[in-house]
Amino acid sequence: MAVGMVPVLRAQILASSAEVSGDPRASEYFGDGVALSGDTAVAGTASNKTVYVFRRGTSGWALESKLAATFPNTMESVVALDGDTLVVANEVYVRSGASWTKQFTVPTGNGYLFALSGDCLVVGDPNDGYDGTYGSNDGAIHVYARANGTWSLEAKLTPDQPRNEGMGYTVALDGDTIAAGCDGRGGPAATYVFVRSGGAWQQQARVLPPAGAAYGWSIALEGDWLAVADPTRSFVHLFHRSADAWSFAQTVGASDADRNNFGAEVRLRDGVLGVLSERRVTYPTTQTTLAAYLFVQTNSGWVQAQRIDRRGNAVFGSLAMSSRTAMLGDGSDSVAATYAGAATIWETPAPSAPGSGWRSVDIGAVALAGTSSGGEPTASVTGSGADIWGKSDAFHFHTETMTGDGAIVARVTGLTNTDGFAKAGIMFREDVSPSAREVMMLATPANNISFQYRTDQASDTQFTLAAYSAPAAWLMLSRTGNQFSGYRSNDGAIWTFVGTATLNLAPTIHVGLAVTSHNNSALATGTFDNVDLVATSNPPPPPPPPPSGWTGTDVGAVGVAGSETISGDSATVRGSGSDIWGTQDAFHFSYQPFEGDGSLVVHVGSVQNTNGWAKAGLMLRESTAANARNVMILARPDSTVSFQFRSASGGESSFTMGSWNLASVWLMLTRTGNTFDGYESIDGATWRKVGSVSLALPASLLAGLAVTSHDNSLLTTATFDNFELMPSASPPPSADWQSAKIGDGLTGAWSVGGDVFTVAGSGSDVWDTSDSFRFVYRALAGDGQIVARLTSLAITADTNPIAKAGVMLRDSLAPNAAYSFLFWTPRELVAFEGRAAAGAAAVRESTLYDRYVPQWLKLVRQGGVVTSFVSTDGAVWLQVSTQTMAAGAPIYAGLAVCAHDATQVETAQFDHVGIAAN
Fold first, then answer.
1. Which domains does the chain have, with CATH numbers?
2. Most CB contacts within 10 A, which of 212, 382, 745, 908?
3. How open is the CA angle 330-331-333, to the nearest 5 degrees?
4. Each residue of 797-815: pLDDT tens digit?
5. pTM here?
């Protein structure tokens, strides 16, 4: 569960000495170790045997007490805290009121690295087993349990076999799971995981590092997630547990290139990953400081949500995290006195409970505080935030509460274009936590409307897409029981159904206006009029019948009646039914008569995920009988394509699987005589055949759009556009691709076979003020994107390690043109570079290390900003960086290969290439 932390309040804590002046003591190294639990914060020191305890009250944080105990010198910075129990070095203290009393001393030789949770204390001892020989230490973990105020040794845990790895170099504890890192002196520095079952601890896993990782320096554990730092390479590796098995999930790094020792400390709390790292800062003077990077989990994996920087020449000594709070200790801070140290607490207020009247609240990991005003009938809402999407949201909410059935109507009259996916709209929401269940009708600056919803806490968001012409973004959400429906209108009088969802929400929920900038460093303002909350839901009438020439009907035993809304070449089709499969089908069919040979083409905008096997696509069918012979090319909610058919009435269905997780889904179905072929494309230009079948069907067939929910109690809504029915079959259209050798070097070559592009390029480099490379391209009229999967770059002994192959947007074919280039090199990295204006020096915006082919690459241009993305599967995309590029229209989008050697030619292959206008 991702819970964001927002720096809306900073409380600067400077340690005080015994003097009432409150000035910190020189060379105390206050904050060298910190701990947090609820409303209590602890800062250890590294030199004067003092630990400071602070407590949060109504007026902020205040010093509660100082502990001056008998723990070993220089160990007072080793602190752990849980509720009223505090561990300092090898001593355990408990609090009563505001007084702390020593309760237990860990025996000498049992270790000095601690993790505390309730009545369980874990002590790591990486030196256990040391015999005087370097690398001879296996390490151990001592587990102590408290009962009736008395601590006793519950278990001593050692590795399953001797490996001399120094286990216990760092430890983490969450419930009945312990993780222990290794110092790596005698081995690869694995991380050991132990679990308690039936009162006994046993080793569950030995989690191995990726190749080359200096691993286990710091670890963090929460639930089924394990974070392991690799600071020498500036990465943190994430592992996930499923059915008692741990597997690698993701590697994260800092968003900026000026980081070093990323992973000096890691923490996991409430779904937020905190990572400490050095940063090299050049303004106003060159210096090294440190930052804390906060990551949250989204549908694209773990992504950076925030970076917290220390002031001046400060260096973080430690990091602690509690619910919605982070504490950053800097033992070397020298602002007030030489090495006096300092600590900073960052926090965000807890979500407010439902109440009467309009209220303004930031939800999730927003970097800039939002504001709102008004209500009915006009309102203005300003918010930042990464998105309202995935498993967790970040936005500003202007909210009321509503009990029972009802509806909200509003017109979006304006929205700041901080990003093409900025959002403003109306929302029903279970509560104001970031991962709450919600339903929303929204508008974006790109004149798109979407109905989106999250059915379960922290589950992925689903959506149905529509369109509008600004500024007529009239939106309505209605609730009838647990059925939530979204509508759009051009005038506030005639309403068009967009989507529906079933959510089992409490009678009283939040309702209001939501805005996210989709750019966490900027604020977007949405303005609304005609805002109206009504106590009982009066949804618009059902959609009208299909236009002339079209027929809409339910086929087979459907549980909920389907419908369609068709306008020009666009359609929204809603269908239930158990499936289109087996010997009989159940679905909704929108069709036209079809004679002889011909073809059907359509772009699938969206398929509502009522079930992973819901289907939407093109169909040629003998009749509307449930068991009729048919041929279909279809897409599922995850953008997986397949070609299927039934060759005999009442017979079994057969299929051929197409591509998985396409970035965009175009479908084509053709008939030539008794041959039926199905094709897929990501841009409607370059096509790939998925399957073919020979069926002796009559000349007259039914041709159209088919939708099944694969859940007979629900309707799936699918949206289509660019639908075309052509009376005579023609082969897939060929794209208007061209190629050019830009700059110096050998000629090179290119070819295309099916959906595979082979590009051979020479050239000295794409860099500085002038470029030389091979470019295979098409013109793009304005805003748009290019997607491709780089499948190979042939590497020989002569290949330069910084040869480049990737996707490019370019203002012209001149060597000095403005460009954006996302590419892979044989150094196994992906980089994003560009030239902001013609003749300017190129700049590298970002670098991602340890990226291996095949690699999906994507560039998206919106206005003068180009955003780059990478993916390993074409479905889950990681944003790399953004760049400003001065370019006119049209621009050139294509594939670029540079040998980085004007006397050599390097050859790359790409597939799933697609270029589309936004």
1. 9-347 (2.130.10.130), 359-534 (2.60.120.200), 551-726 (2.60.120.200), 738-917 (2.60.120.200)
2. 908
3. 70
4. 778 889 999 999 999 999 9
5. 0.44
